[in-house]
């Protein structure tokens, strides 16, 4: 895993929300006593701050009566580290979501895809074909998107990578994105990635029929010291869900679909047959 500034800011947000609640204060009352705007505390607690102020952190620790030196130092260190910039900052022009940042801090990533290969497992040629299908970007911007996606994938081969569990619908594998040669390379890449100890790929066959995950793709991110997150995309927006009820619901859906999927070994054999068909 890579240290993620966004994950650290989220941890700070949760800690200060808990301190305020334990103090029995509303956002408005806490802001009044600190002589801040209520929106400032709300942004902090919703993890909408970019570079936490160490000065503000000390003020809040004093305000909430945190006197334990170890706890204070841990939170101040967290604030300092959360001000660092990750590799994804270089691609702010193409990343419209903080998903790469959260992926970098996750210990386990569970992804379900219906019509496309998961972004973390796409080849360069496949990714280019996907972006070109939009017909709205010039070639230089497509290249920028693709390079950002390839950089995002490096978390899977780092020294301490997250565990990736990928469920892929058979439809995504049979859809000819970029033509036979691109798909053959893509599926061979899936076979190679499935051989890595931290990656498990399972194919959900058409024979599985109707199931609870037909509505669309989603990602479940688990962290070593923080609550899990659910990421899903609609036509108009990216959604982040972090309530326990959401985690339980999506976890159940994911586990149910996994029971319908081919085993990891069967999935690799299925992928190998697809390669043969594409070669023939």
From TrEMBL:
SMART domains, alphabetized: HTH_XRE
Lineage of the species this protein comes from: Bacteria, Bacillati, Actinomycetota, Actinomycetes, Streptosporangiales
Pfam families the UniProt entry points to: DUF5753, HTH_31
Source species, domain of life: Bacteria
UniProt domain HTH cro/C1-type: residue ranges: 16-71
Protein name (database record): Helix-turn-helix domain-containing protein
